[in-house]
Design brief:
The structure holds 2 protein chains of 2 kinds. By secondary structure, chain A is of the alpha+beta class. Chain A is built from 13 helices and 14 strands. Chain A has a 5-stranded antiparallel β-sheet with strand order 4-5-10-6-7. Helices cover 32% and strands 13% of the residues of chain B. Chain B contains 5 helices and 5 strands; from the N terminus they run ββαβββαααα. The longest helix of chain B has 21 residues, at 139-159. The radius of gyration of chain B is 17 Å and the shape is globular. The chains are: A alpha+beta, B alpha+beta. The A-B interface holds A 1-9, 11, 32, 35-36, 39-40, 43, 52, 54, 56, 104-108, 110-111, 192-193 and B 1, 17-21, 24, 37, 40-43, 45, 48, 54-57, 60-62, 64-65, 67, 108, 126-127, 129-131. Chain B: It is an enzyme of class 1 (oxidoreductase). Chain B: One of its GO terms (molecular function) is anaerobic carbon-monoxide dehydrogenase activity. Chain B: It comes from Micromonospora echinospora.
């Protein structure tokens, strides 16, 4: 029987209340949302805290998907299942539904949240790759209601480490909406619900038949989700073609930093980074054209 | 700390540690041992219960988090002496093998049928994809859920007193739905 080390349980009633609790309790406190990353780590005694602050009651405040003309805004407490079932989100960014279908399993998706996934910052975590591909911004609120807006590159500091400081909370993810967008996600896993061996997310923006912008995010091939600016540079201004996708795949394979582990060898993971980059770009272009 | 929640329609209040997991609260504090505890790592799904009507893995939910919420366990599946159609289906189609995964499987199946009264085999397999049965493949579990779906459709049709019985929902003498998944 695995149980976490002892801690005091507190329940927040609003975002500001959660922030004031964290201010009072300091770095020995941690927010718990869905808990499906944090509790397993605490049960394995890889993490322990004096206080857990339950923010599930903030779902009314932080659980939403709002599509505006310039951006889609998603509250940090939006659950995986809500992301998967949102017609609005799927219409704008089908990459989300692609990824959500292969994140954990339906029962875990009933609890786990977007913000929790991003803040866990697991190198193999899928939604960071999705948000990287979509050029998402993370809105972090701190004491006094002050907000910071960070890019995904700024948000991730290292494995399991983000820019969210003590007394701060990730409240929202913003996805810029630009015309001509297509997006797609692919994951190779050993069994249903497992972490990725490698996953890739791609988004392209077409202007006529020319790629005005393209972004690829890879998971499980480095200390954090890897965005690959070199691919964006290589694709901008080009017409989509199989040889162009091959070129992007080759860049992905040589740019990533996979480690050999129980899920596969570094060489195999590079091969996957190449192949999944091609597949997701191909699909993203198809979707942008349709 | 003190926690109050509703379990199978009964309000319970207990003094607990903050770190107590919901599965242990149900099994060890309330004595509801129908909910099983298997892998401890959110993988196997034998601890599935409902939190506010949705399946959750109770080994990965704190009992404190369920405070103020509705919990339903396998003990709350039957209506008095009348078994839920899902329970009947597991009996009819040998969905219970060793029985260890059965409570969690049935809770997921009931929640699935509440949302989707006529799920395909693929939809059933997707719904239980976060749960592990170590006896066989999942054929008899899938068949049990289909049995429940057909049984409920027939019962609903009987209530509306249609003069023609729907062919797709006929149950043959062996207790198998006609055209059931093989």
């Amino acid at each position: 029987m695995q149980v976490p080390a002892p801690f005091e349980y507190e329940r927040a009633t609003s975002v500001d209340h959660a922030i004031s609790l964290m201010e009072r309790l300091g770095s020995t406190s941690r927010l718990i949302a869905g808990g499906h990353s944090l509790l397993p780590m605490m049960k394995l005694r890889l993490a322990s805290f004096d206080y857990l602050i339950d923010i599930n009651d903030l779902h009314d405040e932080l659980g939403y998907i709002e599509a505006g003309p310039g951006e889609v805004r998603i509250g940090a407490l939006t659950r995986h299942r809500e992301l998967l079932e949102s017609a609005t989100l799927t219409a704008a960014f089908p990459i989300f539904a692609d990824a959500e279908r292969v994140i954990a399993d339906p029962i875990v998706r009933n609890r786990g949240t977007l913000g929790g996934s991003l803040c866990q910052a697991d190198p193999s975590e899928d939604l960071s790759a999705v948000c990287t591909a979509l050029d998402a911004s993370c809105v972090i609120r701190g004491p006094g209601g002050a907000e910071r807006v960070l890019s995904m590159e700024e948000f991730h500091v290292g494995p399991y480490e983000t820019a969210v400081g003590d007394g701060e909370i990730l409240v929202e993810v913003r996805l810029p909406v630009r015309p001509g967008c297509g997006s797609s996600y692919e994951k190779v896993e050993r069994r249903a619900g497992d972490w990725a061996v490698v996953s890739a997310g791609a988004a392209v923006w077409l202007d006529g038949d020319v790629i005005s912008d393209a972004r690829v995010g890879l998971a499980a091939v480095g200390p954090n989700t890897t965005g690959i600016p070199e691919i964006s540079t290589a694709l901008r201004g080009q017409t989509p073609s199989e040889s162009l996708f091959e070129q992007a795949g080759a860049i992905a394979a040589r740019s990533c930093e996979p480690a050999t582990d129980q899920r596969g060898s570094a060489d195999y993971k590079r091969h996957l980074a190449d192949e999944l980059t091609r597949r997701t770009l191909r699909r993203a272009v198809e979707r942008a054209r349709s | 700390m003190q926690v109050t929640m509703t379990v199978n329609d009964v309000e319970v209040t207990r003094e607990i540690e903050g770190r107590l997991l919901l599965v242990h609260f149900l099994r060890d504090v309330l004595g509801l041992t129908g909910t099983h505890s298997g892998c401890d790592t959110s993988n196997c799904g034998t601890c599935v219960v409902w939190l506010d009507g949705e399946p959750v893995k109770s080994c990965t939910v704190l009992a404190a988090m369920a405070g103020g919420h509705q919990v339903r366990t396998v003990e709350g599946l039957a209506k008095g002496a009348e078994l839920d159609p899902v329970q009947q289906g597991f009996m009819q189609c040998h969905g219970l093998q060793c029985g260890f995964c059965t409570p969690g499987m049935m809770m997921t199946a009931r929640a699935l049928l509440n949302r989707n009264p006529d799920p395909s085999e693929a939809e059933i397999r997707e719904a239980i994809s976060g749960q592990i049965c170590r006896c066989t493949g999942y054929a008899t579990i899938v068949r049990s859920v289909r049995w429940a779906a057909v049984h409920e459709a027939n019962a609903a049709a009987a209530v509306t007193e249609t003069t023609e019985s729907p062919e797709a929902g006929e149950i043959d003498n062996a207790g198998q739905p006609a055209g059931s998944v093989a």
